[in-house]
What we know:
Elements: H1 10-29, H2 33-53, H3 60-108
Helix pairs in contact: 1-2, 1-3
Amino acid sequence: MLNIAAMPSQIETYEQIHALSTRMVEAARANDWDQLIDLEHNVADLRATLLAEESNPLDPAEVEQKRRLIQYILRDDAEVRRHTEPWMEQVRRFLGGDARKQRVDRAYGSGS
């Protein structure tokens, strides 16, 4: 039997996501990509939980709290991207350069 009282409210779930997003910023600043990935998986799980909760109506105070939490989460997301995008660009260049080298080697021989 499902215990409704044990299920977190929308606001509690948003608070959990906010807490994780704050930890994601810390992981991104520390270049701890493994931790960042683990935290993102946790956030994805909570987002799935929210889909089930979104149909429950909120009172005006909860709507305001939800709005504020979403703003914090979006701010954290922008900060994470600020740290991850340069790293991702390096990876793209590295992989793109490797692929380009392989094409040149195939076309002209590897020279070794």
